[in-house]
UniProtKB/TrEMBL annotation:
This protein's name: Uncharacterized protein
Entry superkingdom: Eukaryota
Length: 922
């Protein structure tokens, strides 16, 4: 892992191929608007279904089709929810008040303390109370500050303002620059400190007045030199930690903060530090010092962990062209900067295309609330989709829906037309529910229309990556990226994907055949239909679900999945598997970026506090619809840091940096010497906000899966407590990192796990098993079609990063995409569209998108080996923790997988091992 390993963000999987991001507008559409419109659609189009296995279709917030069935909950039931919930909430408050020890320094309010004996409360009682409070905490619509006061009587320190993540000074966006400058200064000291072990002829301090420059004139004694040399891996790891603490936080803030000023300052911080890091990745001094350390005798010798750390740093330095002549190294840095900028531009365009513009519909007839998220700007800056003769073409969508769309006459179109924003919620509704094929086609083509500007950005990005691979003397970007992944080579990846694709192609064709038969059946005319087109897929998938499983309409399951119930269930699941649980934790004013953020502390039954998770679950205007896991702070050992050796100025304020904001002294980890920094992660999703009017956030099935998935990453971060930052938690190979999270998707659909979390939000009754099972049966239909999409996307990613990107004539991403889906897909490509400009994962997962499919194969095997017979097995959980999660990236992933599935033959990770993994998915 190089110092360059920025932004520990793990995006969730996009669930479909040739279509726009779904319900991108959810953050703008209020629940009542949507339910009103959904009801209007439901009543007129009659096409309502519950969430189906077609994940992309079911990426919903509260305004999902499930919300239609939600109206089955009578108004009286709704009002009953509030007293029940607030009762339990008050009960939580009462108990918490009794439990809160006076004057306790940290922000733990209930049972937990690292010194449990000092607590005035019975452990079991407090555990139960936390369990109950968790549910209330996520289901109550009250602002976080109020929730926190419910958990404990407010103490003066709870009410005292603080900064983001309890940083006392990070209270204003302007401080980001102070923090960045301080971090850069510290970084420079660390670089000079590391490089000072080199002979004077090789040591060039960054500043001539560096405190380490004295070694140029008077070298250390032999003893001091040996000691300093031994410190090199540790110092390099600490350098990485110092920089990542700010840059990863900036990455989070610029993605989630509702305030533009914070976003702008975080962007600046990210760019300043990112550029510094890019320079360090080709820093000769650091590389030579590390090599000197590796090649020198040490007494006592280097530990296994130190050797592994040195190996990962060396690999990354060498991938950064450290061995190249200076002009090539300079080119490497330039290209890295350009790639970073192009990547950001590409992602910005993806997000902009998905974000709704300001409303501008017939406000006078529908009221302003009706329009949120539905319409686009009239300025024409974003190309709106014009639907001619809207009343006829959108027939079946309901009059209120149509009337909420801006009129053509107002936006320069024809008198009878209406406009819709590309990728808006309304656009999605049309693609999914418009009975008229023409309507679906117009909107599909409008959402995916070819944009020369966006195609150019993507193609420049791919070509720059190809050029950078050339600078490194690699055949392609993929070859360069894959060398330290499980798959090792592009040939291995394509071999894996091709055999999988061939194996599943007949099943995917059969799925499309089912949809085509339905289309013929429902066609009003007798003439031959055109087969399933890209704009038909979602519509007939919805119809198919409704037709084959009418029972699913009778038994909606989402009332059993309130956000609080699911989080509570996750905590219970982790208690069963690992002996850890979530403890609700109050937020101090200023600690989080939005009032809807919630925080839990993660507590191990023997080790005590092991980390914190901030949840930013609910929609708000402008928030990304993508679910994500962010690492803000990694675990690492800190008691042997030797901070005085950094020679920072005497007045240096240690608490002004990001290190040591919380748990400055670190905590002990069972079975390990020393004290450790606690990991801190953030999960973001785009669920509907709970409100007093509508009750808690009820999750569609796919949202439940998403929450489990993201929690898999969070737990990896919590349990992967390595001595070094650079290999902790999710800092592991990209094609390994999804394993823990995909495994969580097996837990979520296990009937044994279900009782831990599925309970009705009004009646508190458990979800009847037969309803769940018929739901799962529905889920598994059309799954080959979905897998085909995933495999095709992974192949596309490989082809875009192959030597094709180094063709002097330039890469033609549209031709490659259309050829690929003609050959390996099951639904023909649409001329004039360029779906690839919406494939945002190309930026963060360039050449490693196959990881999702690959890790799905491994996760299936881990599940059948450890948990299929007993999904709540503590033995299974302990084995997973011991063999996989606890290592983070500190061990070869093939060895970890071989151990956990008891199959030594794959430990070497060769081409044959790849085939074995492929066979697990067949
Ligand atoms: Zn993931």
């Amino acid at each position: 892992m190089s110092l360059l390993r920025l932004g520990q963000r793990t995006l969730s999987i996009p669930k479909a191929l040739p279509r726009p991001p779904l319900l991108a507008a959810s953050s703008q559409a209020t629940f009542s608007t949507r339910s009103y419109l959904l009801n209007s659609i439901n009543n007129t189009a009659g096409s309502s279904t519950t969430t189906n296995n077609h994940h992309s279709v079911s990426k919903t917030s509260k305004g999902s089709l499930n919300t239609i069935t939600d109206s089955a909950v009578s108004p009286s039931s709704r009002t009953r929810w509030l007293p029940r919930s607030s009762t339990s909430w008050r009960r939580g408050r009462h108990a918490a008040a009794a439990a809160a020890p006076p004057g306790q320094e940290d922000t733990v309010y209930s049972s937990f303390s690292s010194d449990q004996t000092s607590m005035p409360m019975n452990h079991e009682t407090s555990r139960k109370m936390d369990d109950e409070t968790l549910r209330a905490m996520f289901d109550n619509p009250v602002a976080t500050a109020d929730v926190s006061r419910a958990f404990a009587p407010p103490r003066s320190e709870d009410l005292a303002p603080t900064g983001l993540f309890l940083h006392p000074r990070l209270q204003s966006p302007e401080y980001m620059q102070t923090l960045t400058s301080q971090t850069l200064q510290h970084g420079i000291h660390l670089v000079d400190r590391i490089c000072s072990v080199l002979p004077p002829s090789q040591f060039q301090p960054i500043h001539p007045e560096s405190p380490f420059a004295s070694y140029l004139d008077s070298p250390r004694s032999a003893y001091e030199h040996a000691k300093a040399l031994r410190m090199v891996p540790k110092l390099l790891d600490r350098l990485s930690d110092v920089l990542c603490l700010v840059i990863d936080m900036a990455e989070l803030v610029r993605n989630v903060h509702p305030d533009e000023r914070w976003i702008a300052e975080s962007d600046r911080a990210y760019e300043r530090l990112g550029s510094f890091m890019n320079g360090l990745n080709t820093h000769q001094g650091l590389y030579q010092a590390l090599k000197l350390c590796r090649d020198s005798p040490h007494d006592p010798p280097l530990t296994t962990a130190e050797k592994q750390l040195i190996r990962t740093f060396m690999t990354d330095f060498e991938k950064s062209g450290i061995h190249l002549p200076p002009d090539s190294r300079q080119r490497f840095v330039e290209l890295s900067d350009e790639i970073q900028l192009l990547g950001r531009k590409f992602l910005h365009d993806v997000a902009a295309a998905a974000a709704p513009s300001d409303g501008d519909g017939d406000a006078e007839s529908t009221g302003p609330g009706m329009l949120a998220g539905l319409t686009g700007s009239s300025s024409g800056s974003k190309a709106m989709i014009e639907i001619p003769d809207a009343d006829a073409v959108l027939n079946g969508m309901g009059k209120p829906f149509i009337e909420a769309l801006p009129k053509g006459s107002r936006l320069g179109g024809s008198r009878l037309s209406r406009f819709v924003s590309p990728n808006s919620w309304a656009a999605q509704m049309i693609i999914r529910h418009a009975p008229n094929e023409r309507a679906r086609r117009i909107v599909y083509e409008g959402c995916n229309r070819y944009s020369q500007e966006r195609v150019d950005v993507l193609e420049s990005l791919l070509e720059k990556r190809g050029e950078l691979a050339g600078v490194l003397d690699q055949e392609s970007w993929a070859a360069s990226v894959l060398s330290d992944k499980m798959a090792k080579t592009p040939e291995n990846v394509m071999g894996f994907l091709t055999s999988l694709a061939k194996h599943h192609l007949p099943k995917a064709r059969a799925d499309v055949g089912l949809l085509a038969a339905l289309k013929r059946m429902e066609s009003s005319s007798n003439r031959e239909t055109s087969g399933i087109n890209a704009w038909d897929r979602d519509y007939f998938s919805e119809r198919y679900m409704a037709v084959i499983a009418p029972g699913s309409r009778v038994h909606p399951i989402h009332p059993f999945f309130s956000a609080g119930t699911v989080i509570q269930g996750l905590s219970r699941l982790f208690t069963n598997l690992y002996g850890i649980r979530f403890v609700p934790c109050a937020l101090r004013p200023g600690e989080a970026w939005d009032k809807d953020v919630r925080k839990v502390q993660v507590v191990d039954e023997t080790e005590g506090l092991i980390g914190s998770i901030y949840f930013d679950l609910f929609s708000r205007p402008g928030k990304s619809p993508n679910a994500a896991h962010y690492t803000v702070r990694c675990s690492r050992r800190i008691d042997d840091d030797d901070l005085p050796g950094d020679r920072l100025p005497p007045d240096w304020d240690w608490r002004a940096g990001m290190t040591g904001v919380e748990n400055y002294e670190g905590v002990q980890v069972k079975g390990k010497p020393g004290r450790y920094q606690l990991p801190l992660v953030v999960l973001t999703t785009d669920f509907a906000r709970p409100s007093f009017e509508d009750g808690p956030s009820l999750l569609a099935w796919q949202e439940v899966e998403t929450l489990f998935h993201e929690m898999g990453h969070a737990i990896h971060s919590m349990l992967g407590r390595t001595e070094y930052h650079n290999v902790s938690g999710t800092r592991c190979a990209t094609d390994f990192v999804e394993l823990p999270s995909i495994l969580m998707e097996s837990f979520v659909s296990s009937p044994a796990v279900l009782p831990l979390f599925a309970r009705h939000f009004v009646t508190d009754t458990p979800l009847p098993l037969e309803h769940f099972q018929s739901h799962l049966a529905l889920q598994s239909s059309l799954s080959a079609l979905e897998l085909n999409s995933q495999i095709t996307m992974a192949m596309l990613d490989q082809m875009y990063h192959s030597p094709l990107a180094r063709d002097p004539k330039g890469i033609d991403t549209t031709a490659i995409y259309h050829n690929l889906i003609s050959k390996m897909g099951v639904i023909p490509p649409v001329q004039g569209t360029a779906w690839q400009t919406q494939f945002g994962h190309l930026v963060g997962y360039g050449a490693t998108y196959y990881s999702y499919t690959f890790d799905r194969a491994i996760a299936g095997k881990v599940w059948s080996t450890l948990f299929a017979n007993d999904p709540l097995s503590r033995d299974g959980g302990e084995k997973l923790r011991q063999d996989v999660l606890g290592w983070g990236g500190g061990k070869d992933p093939w060895e970890m997988v071989a151990n956990v599935v008891d199959n030594e033959s794959i430990a070497s990770g060769d081409a044959k091992a790849m085939q074995t993994v492929g066979s697990w998915l067949q």
